[in-house]
Amino acid sequence: MPGVDDPKTVTAALDMAGLDALIAALAERGYRVIGPMVADDAVVYDEIASSADLPAGVGDEQDGGRYRLRARGDGALFGYTVAPQGWKRLLHPPRQKMFAARRQDGGFAILPPEPAAAPMAFLGVRACELAAIGIQSRVFGDEAAGDPGYRGRLARSFVVAVECAEAGGTCFCASMGTGPQVEAGFDIRLVELAGHDRHVFLADAGSAKGAEMLSGLNAPPAPEADRAEARRRVSAAAGAMGRTMPAATARRLGEHAEHRRWADIGKRCLSCGNCTMVCPTCFCTTVEDVTDLKGEHAERWRTWDSCFSIDFSYIHGGAIRNEVRSRYRQWITHKLSAWHEQFGTSGCVGCGRCITWCPVGIDITEEVQAIHADGKGR
Amino acid sequence: MAARAKPKLAVWKFSSCDGCQLTLLDCEDELLAITEEVRISYFLEATRKAEKGPYDVSLVEGSITTPHDIKAIRDVRKNSKVLVSIGACSTAGGIQALRNFASVKDYSRAVYAHPEYLDTLTTSTAISDHVRVDFELRGCPINKHQLLEVLGAFLNGRKPNIPQYSECVECKRNGIVCRMVAKGTPCLGPATQAGCGTLCPGTDRGCYGCFGPAEGANTAALAARLAHLGKDDGEIGRLFRTFNANAEAFRKESQSHG
Ligand code: SF4
Ligand code: SF4
Ligand code: SF4
Question: How many domains does chain B have?
Answer without folding.
Answer: 2
